Amino acid sequence: MNGWSNHLIVAPILVPLVACAILLVIDERRRVAKAMVSLASTIVLTAIAVILFAIESGPSGFEGVYLVGNWAAPFGIVLVLDGLSAMMLLLTALLAVASLVFSFARWHAVGAHFHSMFQLLLMGVNGAFLTGDLFNLFVFFEVMLAASYGLLLHGSGQLRVKAGLHYIAVNLVAALLFLIGVSLIYGTAGTLNMADLAARIPEMEPDRRMLMEAGAGILGVVFLIKAGMWPLCFWLPTAYSAASAPVAGIFAIMSKLGIYVILRLTMLLFVEGPSAGFGAQVLFYGGMATLVFGIIGVLASQALGRVAGYSVLVSSGTLLMVIGINDGAVSSGALLYLVSSTLTISAFFLLIELVERGQDAGANVLAVTMEAYGDAADEEVPEEQGVTMPGTMAVLGICFAACGILLSGLPPLSGFIAKFAMLSAMMGTGAIGVPPTAAIWSLIVLVILSGIAALISMTRAGIRTFWSSIEGTVPRVLVIEILPVMFLLGLTLALTVQAGPAMQYMDTTIRTLSKPSLYIDAVRTAAPTGADVKSSSSEVESN
Around Cβ 95, how many Cβ atoms within 10 Å? Predict the structure, then answer.
């Protein structure tokens, strides 16, 4: 990446930051103006993410490195773009567009500073995907959490406040553990730059390396909390199901942030050298326990919001097990599964409000929320914002069936293709051994059972909602609400049609991650621009 395109790496952080600053000075009563600023920012962010993804998909190969302060690593702030981070940026932007548009129908107006917090959340998530050092990972992690606290509480309501307080308490503990882990790593390695840390680990004395691994283990707990690994996941289904629909829709990417960081650090720090394989068994068996817990939760849940929350755990458990296996062929299918499941769960969270709107329970929850802001009677959406959908129940039913097919991994959609890629690799085409071990067979069985559990749960919920709901009324669904759901499901259809190129991209990404030297060399050889520089990479090594 050269010239102007290299500066695009910092844009996913700057665009939502500038938008948030603009939104804060706009009066809260000017809701249309705030909505337009937020939408414009998100669309620009999506365009930038598409450009960055296209660059990483091209034949030019590996990543771009951006020296924010024009200081060479490891002293300066470094942003790094590669295939994995470009994919996650694009996925975040697509979820943001859908969730934001959905909020325009009602939710953005039931509390203060919704759009400001939404943009701050995007800034934190994008920064975490791009940062090349652990300290700034903590900074962006805290920015994301601070915004998520306000978004989770957005709309008030007793259940939402209760879940929000639990969520805040858990994440404050995670932030404390983050600082402890980072301190141990810095005290033993003398650096927090990821590339520099990976280069120094093989040279460490055994006693110092043990302390560094202890710090990495504590840091891993933080992101396992965010990813939702059992037994650190009890907060997640309640928090996600209590959040408003557009907030839950964008929260779907936050659990994948934990997966991303674990995958990044595992492939960078613990693939080669004396610490190779560190934490792999914990991830494998912890992921297996998470998957079992998620399957039980999906089967036991009656409320659709709880089903969606436990589906997040099923997704996280599957991905954690694959990271523990550390096989390239399985990991490629897992990346496709990550994208497909995130799009599906986000669409499902948005769809749940529309489906439950015709039921008494959903209507009562919404009425309480609106009453909390004194808008129960006069906050109806004006007709000019949209028109009701013709054949509402038919459209909702088709979308619901699509979500069920995707969550259960039935053909022909992308959920099936991703699971088929993983399972076929587990059964011998990858590097994990032929025939599969007992642990791998257990994983295969659990992945299949998770699909059966999702199918049973979604079928039961579909019958109760669409076939047996005699007393329920047909919900009033606006075009602006159903379009985001159809958009996300349409992306899974596009992923199905383009499964070949998508799997090629995933294969290339995993092969790149499996060679940490590429990442290390790219960061350590990135030279500051201009004549007036403080140091060069050669001077850093000599010092």
Answer: 27
Q: Which two tokens stand for residue 161?
A: 């406040």
Give exposure, 361-397, as e/b (b: 16+ Cβ within 10 Å). Answer: ebeebbebbbebeeeeeeeeeeeeebeebeebbebbb
Cis, bond preceding 516 (omega within 30 deg of 0)? no
* 237 preceded by a cis bond (ω within 30 of 0): no
Can you state the angle between helices 438-462 and 414-424, rounded to 10 degrees? 160
The distance between the two most distant Cα atoms of the chain, rounded to a whole number of Å, is 77
Instruction: Convert the pLDDT of each residue in 215-268 to its tens digit.
Output: 888 988 999 998 889 888 888 888 888 888 899 999 999 889 989 999 998 888
The residues that bridge with 78 in the sheet, in sequence order, are 67
The angle at the Cα of 481, spanning 476 to 485, to the nearest 5 degrees, equals 120
Chain centroid to CA 1:
26
Residues 6+ away with beta carbon under 8 Å from 73: 65, 67, 132, 193, 195, 196, 523, 524, 526, 537, 540
Peptide bond into 435 cis (omega under 30): yes
Q: Which residues contact 437 (CB under 8 A, 6 or more apart)?
A: none
Residues linked to residue 131 through DSSP beta bridges, in sequence order: 79
- Chain centroid to Cα 456, Å, comes to 26
| H helix or E strand, kind and range, residue 30 | none
Where do we find the tokens 């985001």? Answer: 484
Least Cα distance to 418 among 342, 332, 355, 360 occurs for: 332
Tell me the three state secondary structure of residue 478: strand
How many angstroms separate the CA atoms of 423 and 417, rounded?
10
Q: For 233-250, b where at least 16 C-beta lie within 10 A, e where not — what string?
A: bebbbbbbbbbbbbbbbb
Q: What is the DSSP string of 379-441?
A: -PPPGGG--BPTTHHHHHHHHHHHHHHHHHT-TTSHHHHHHHHHHHIIIIISSS-SSPPHHHH
φ, ψ of residue 534 in degrees (nearest 5): -90, -25
What does pTM read for this prediction? 0.86
Q: Quote the CA–CA distance of 190 and 197 in Å, as a whole number.
A: 8
Spatial separation of the C-alpha atoms in residues 72 and 79, rounded to whole Å = 12
Smallest Cα–Cα separation from 98: which of 400, 389, 358, 485? 485
Using one digit for the tens of pLDDT, what is the confidence trace for 484-521?
A: 999 999 999 999 998 889 998 898 888 888 888 888 88
Contacts of 191 (CB under 8 A, 6+ apart): 74, 197, 200
Contact 255, 286 (CB under 8 A): no
Q: Do 488 and 496 form a contact (C-beta atoms < 8 A)?
A: no
